[in-house]
Specification:
By secondary structure, the chain is α/β, with parallel strands linked by helices. It has a five-stranded parallel β-sheet, with helices on one face. A five-stranded parallel β-sheet has the order 16-15-14-17-18, with helices on one face. Helix 2 (41-52) crosses helix 3 (76-92) and helix 6 runs parallel beside helix 8 (209-217). It has helices at 6-13, 41-52, 76-92, 104-110, 142-151, 176-187, 202-205, 209-217, 233-243, 307-317, 335-344, 346-353, 401-410; strands at 26-30, 33-37, 63-66, 95-97, 119-122, 136-139, 153-157, 161-167, 196-200, 226-228, 261-266, 273-275, 283-285, 296-300, 327-331, 356-357, 378-381, 395-398.
Length: 422
């Protein structure tokens, strides 16, 4: 019998009594954490009340709301939905990470709710970002999450696993986002469809946690179920400290684990990349589209909303001003990131350069929130999607924070200059 992949090991540890965790098997998966956000949260409450009445949730210490999509609300429907969740949370005595807290998936890592080998579900389609710390995260519909709230488990079909091996190392000015775009360009929007991914190679091992978050956040756009990055000693130290679990170890695949496919990608000659409309998979070298005038820049989202992302931009724009016709906005991922920006001086540097700084949250991924485009507008964004209408009626190009910084300064799509930190 072949050895087990990472997802098989996590599923085996969370499905006691199951006969098989082979790909294709359907199991009952025990959940360490279950969440709902302001998007679909009110429907979770509605479904729960319809099917379970006033019955208590399975474990209130493992059940949470996170308000991050339109935070604070700028329209009545979101304000109503958030209040519905707050009221029900008080009845159930469960915690709400409210509109000042930030992106739920990032909070999960910061406060130690997600850690290597754990299982975590919610109404966020990018919860597989938790693969950055070696956890299984998954977005689900409101009926499924209501069931998870009541029972503490969900059914899941064990997916096959593919291995992505990166050859070579990252060289400046390329960053983790350029690496991610290279993988995205190679796999396309369905190259990992219905699969788990395990990422390996020297460039992967060298990624710090913010870089791993960038890569893991784009697995959804590759069609993947989850992308696992085996934790480095630094990531393990982070998760042990933040979860209060000093005994934590990473989950590693067996040497003889079976993979449905192995893909090798050589980044030796990698150059700064950009995802052009209308898809995150429409990846090209920045130089091929350089010179197009832009109107706005958005920095943030679950993909590039960490302090290190904004610090990289601040280093580039310090003492300079963005082009006068460019509207550039910054949305930190969490309150903790915002505090780092305040105390380090990064926020002041960005403000002096002409950036608009908003409160923590998802920002441009939420319709009607900061980072939207109007018809005919051209935007550079560090978010994860540029489908038509996703960030408004304009054209959105996806780049690294470094590339976005140079574009903001020049007022056009620009290849990043010199050596920059990522």
């Amino acid at each position: 019998m072949a050895g087990k992949t990472i997802i098989q090991k996590i599923f085996a540890a969370h499905s006691s009594g199951e006969a098989s965790v082979e790909p294709g098997a359907i199991i009952w998966l025990d959940l360490d954490v279950r969440t709902a956000r302001d998007f679909a949260g009110a429907n979770v409450v509605k479904n729960y009340r319809t099917h379970y009445g006033d019955a208590p949730v399975a474990d209130r210490e493992k059940t949470f709301f996170t308000f991050d999509l339109v935070a604070p609300p700028n329209n009545i429907p979101y304000a109503n939905n958030q209040q519905i969740c707050r009221t029900w949370a008080r009845e159930q005595r469960i915690k709400v990470y409210d509109v000042d807290a930030g992106i739920g998936s990032h909070l999960a890592m910061e406060v130690g709710l997600a850690y290597p080998g754990s299982t975590f579900v919610g109404t966020d389609s990018h919860l597989n970002i938790l693969g950055a710390v070696g956890a299984f995260g998954q977005g689900m519909g409101d009926q499924d999450i209501a069931f998870a709230f009541k029972t503490g488990k969900t059914w899941f079909e064990v997916p096959p696993t593919m291995k992505v091996v990166i050859k070579g190392t990252l060289q400046k000015p390329c960053t983790a986002r350029d690496l991610t775009l290279a993988i995205m360009g190679r796999l396309g929007s369905n190259g990992a469809l219905g699969r788990a991914i395990e990422f390996y190679g020297p460039a992967i091992e060298a990624l710090d946690l913010p870089d791993r978050i960038t890569l893991a956040s784009q697995v959804t756009e590759m069609g993947g179920i989850i992308g696992f990055i085996p934790p480095s000693p630094e990531v393990l130290a982070f998760t042990r400290e933040h979860s209060g679990r000093p005994e934590l170890e990473g989950v590693a695949a067996d040497p003889d684990a079976a993979y449905v496919e192995t893909v090798e990608i050589d980044i030796t000659a990698l150059e700064p990349l950009i995802a052009c409309p209308p898809s995150p998979a429409n990846v090209k070298p920045v130089r091929e589209v350089a010179g197009r005038r832009i109107d706005s820049v958005f920095l943030g989202s679950c993909t590039n909303g960490r302090f290190e992302d904004f610090a990289a931009v601040a280093e580039i724009v310090k003492g300079k001003r963005i082009a006068p016709w460019v509207m550039a906005s910054v949305v930190p991922a969490t309150r903790g990131v915002f505090e780092q920006m305040l105390t380090s001086g990064v926020l002041k540097t960005l403000f002096d350069a002409g950036f608009i700084i908003s409160n923590p949250g998802c920002g441009g991924c939420a319709s009607g929130h900061i980072g939207m485009t109007g018809e005919g507008q051209v935007q550079i964004s560090t978010s994860n999607r540029n489908f038509p209408g996703k960030q408004g009626a304009g054209d959105t190009y996806l780049t690294s924070p470094a590339t976005a910084a140079w574009c903001a300064l020049k007022g056009e799509i620009t290849v990043p200059e010199g050596e920059v930190e990522a």
